Fold these 4 entries.
Entry 1:
Amino acid sequence: MALSTLQKKQLVAVTGLGLVGFVIAHLTGNFLIFKGADALNDYAKFLHDLGGLLWAARIGLIAMFVIHMGLTANLVINKIKARGSNYAKFENHAQKPSFSARIMPFSGVVILAYVIFHLLDFTFAEKSGIINGVDQGLYGLVVTSFMDPLHSAIYIIAMAFLGLHLSHSLQSIFQTFGLVSVNRLNTIRTISTAIGVGIAVAYSSIPVYVLLNF
Ligand code: HEM
């Protein structure tokens, strides 16, 4: 059974919301870095010890990612085919689309590239990093990685794109489900931008903290 354009947009919105949930949960876990090596390493061990449950969550996450990207790519291609124009043109909008709205497909691709880099960087890497002559496991790996300013810069730039993507996401989800009236649009846009900027700044605080303290 083929999905309608609206159904595809709704699935993109629902999976996007799930991914935002992961981004917030992952951020709160990562904040344990500020508490020190034991806090982060114990948390990572706790997650790994979940075994089957962790894998169920990972499969759910991968499924959301694939559906979100696959349907978005499909919607973009169909729009280009139907209008013979660029996806960046939003002819029917009452207001001029924001910068974050115009670059949604691009920021999405940057996030995909970042996630691949990030998994190779931390998940598939040996969980080891020496600080003050002692191997501090996953904590050591993260801290020694961010001690390199170039490495930190790559993360901060990626977080800026994540922030831009999220800035438009929330208002987009509200619009997809018809939950926002025209006169509330500006309020939703402001809240959405605040959440995007807040998440980008919060994530970036981790490499900045390492650069300033190690
Ligand atoms: C400063 C920013 C970040 C830090 C310090 C960080 C840290 C980490 C660490 C240490 C791991 C490996 C955990 C382990 O194997 O035990 C990890 C895994 C992961 N991170 Fe991040 N992360 C950051 C940002 C992000 C962002 C923005 C995303 C998504 C857009 C993300 C997505 C993931 C995913 C999908 C995994 C794999 C999870 C799994 O193995 O189940 N991370 N991260």
Entry 2:
Amino acid sequence: MAFVGRSNVGKSSLLNALVGKKGLARVSGTPGKTRLVNVFRLPALYLVDLPGYGFARASKVDRAGFRRLLNGYVEHRDSLAGVVWLLDSRRALSTDDQEVRALLAASGRPVLAVLTKLDKLGRAAAQDRMAALAAELGLAVDELQPTSIVSGEGIAELGESILAVADQGTPS
Ligand SMILES: Nc1nc2c(ncn2[C@@H]2O[C@H](COP(=O)(O)OP(=O)(O)O)[C@@H](O)[C@H]2O)c(=O)[nH]1
Ligand SMILES: [Mg+2]
């Protein structure tokens, strides 16, 4: 399963929360830090932390390189069971998000849409943002998985969903 999302969305934090090991994936206050593909081997599957996109200070060459990496991974990686796509619950979709969304849709891969940092919103604001993002994505609200590494909300549920997708992706 590959983890995809803009820089600073909380990918590494979520990977650590899922695996239950702080510091396994490098969490950073500095956007654009993860420039390598980090792979975490679990008993049932591999979790792949792809570099974040949309980092404002990244060079054109870096951006193009990232785009090639993501395209190649999503379109050609035979062993890819699915994609966990992270969106910040507080933000509207960026242009990069829109492009990645089109790429994921075109790939036909199973996609788990995850909202991060729900603890930063109050209950009413969280409901509003989830409805707005669902509408923007053309999804039902219950197709978005809200998460927070602070409260632990949604981590176990996401783990279950990942295992279910990985299971379906395993050749028999
Ligand atoms: N409050 C809060 N902060 C978070 C959450 N997830 C990540 N962060 C913070 O967001 C920043 C970026 O996280 P990181 O995992 O490095 O993002 P990445 O660039 O997508 O890998 C760090 O300061 C994290 O502590 C969350 O659920 N709640
Ligand atoms: Mg990271």
Entry 3:
Amino acid sequence: MFAPEIRILVIDDMPSIRDLVKSQLKTMGFKTIYEAEDGEAGLEALYRHHKAGEPIELVISDWNMPKLKGLELLKKVRSSAEFKDLPFVLLTSEAEREQVTEAVLSGVSQYVVKPFSAKIFEDKLKIVWDKHKK
Ligand SMILES: [Mg+2]
């Protein structure tokens, strides 16, 4: 599993979802959690932390957001030199489920359908860890 010290970026346009994800991550023992309110701000945060020498090590991103949607953000991340191997989890709603194939083809690490239990979320993160560990 990911170490408790990793830097995590939670991207969602709904503060209540960000709070929920953050509290689940904290319950799992994670300590360093950053937030962004849309895909554009999320991408900006990724580059800012990278330049500061404190790169984000896990992204949890909503799908449906203003400015830059989660799928578009994922494509930008995967086509960049800096973040192509970054663990990236998409949070989807039931309505977006049939679009998930495109996210899989675009290299999403895992996706989680909202609403989700703490147990499912933790299980998904373990799968992501197994996928990305070297
Ligand atoms: Mg949203």
Entry 4:
Amino acid sequence: MLAAGWSTAAYLLWASSIVPDGLELPDVDPHAYLPDRILARANSFERFLRWNFALSTVALFGALAFYARRGERFMRESAAGRIGTGMLLGMLGFAIVWITQLPFSIASFWWARRYGLAEGDYFSYVFGDWLVLGFTFLSLCLALLIVMGLAGWIGRWWWVLGGPVFVGIAALFLFVFPYLSDLDRPRDRALVAQGRAIAAKTGVDDVPLRIEKVSDQTKLVNAWAAGFGPSRRVVLWDTLLDGRFSDEEVGVVIAHEYGHHARAHLSKGLAWYALFAIPGAFLIELLTRRKGGMRNPAAVPLSLLVLVALQFVALPVDNVISRRMEAEADWTALETTRRPKAAERLFAGFTRTSLSDPHPPTWSYVLLDSHPTIEQRIAMAEAWAARRGR
Ligand SMILES: [Zn+2]
């Protein structure tokens, strides 16, 4: 019955899409949109980052496997009680992961600087995001407190309550996230008017447009949709507005982000999270049982390995779901702006400005791409134009 319920929910979340069924994407030759020099540059830029990711993953699993085997030893020194000891082991695991990942993170920053895509010095790169670091650290402690507290109370059934509690926390975080970010109102009147018109057209005119200043850290361009109910926002990075993109192209981005809200993608994302988090919590209990389950602090190092492994296994599925929503947002942008040429220039512009490889290797597409490729996005704009006779 549980499996049937799960499948029905997944089917309902998956099935509804405004992208026409059987929409054929034409073959796109990126050379028709971008000079060879840029394509070669994007290719070499991303190739390094891909291998950096592959190696960092190997290092991550190596470190976590080692910690899962040996981590318990540190328990003997702890006099912090059951949950306190579990949290200490969690913090130690977090520190080990952070240190293992640091060289790869620095390597990717070094690489982005070489290509002129990152700003600032190494020190502020590593420690500048201390708020995020502190937040992750506290979240891990809170998660362990909840899991071990529940496991002390209802034993191996903690996941039945723990799973929904984590979904509740995720929902709360989805709601408050826009308030935690440092966002400005747009000052350019034309942009404000353009944002309002697009919001009205997509049917979410109560969602405000905001600007996030990132130009002191990066030259990359981006935008995001966030929040829930009254906290919903569409946010543009200020790098998108520095003159490298035309107003029409910026309009496509704005319409894409409003498309996410119009199609309730953030709530759907949360629903997908619930569909994975609850069985995931069950699997963590099941797979840590040989260390006494999550009641026992000795299981904490192993639970970190299991958690990261489950997240890794879920990555391809996560990306399939995300790419489907992104395609839907692109389709909404085309229907709203009716500017397929601007969309094509915008997507090609992502390769120019952010060096996204238009045609990544399959393994990287499967593991890393939360968006359709630049080639696929251009192809969708062409397909839209062919259908609408533009
Ligand atoms: Zn998107």
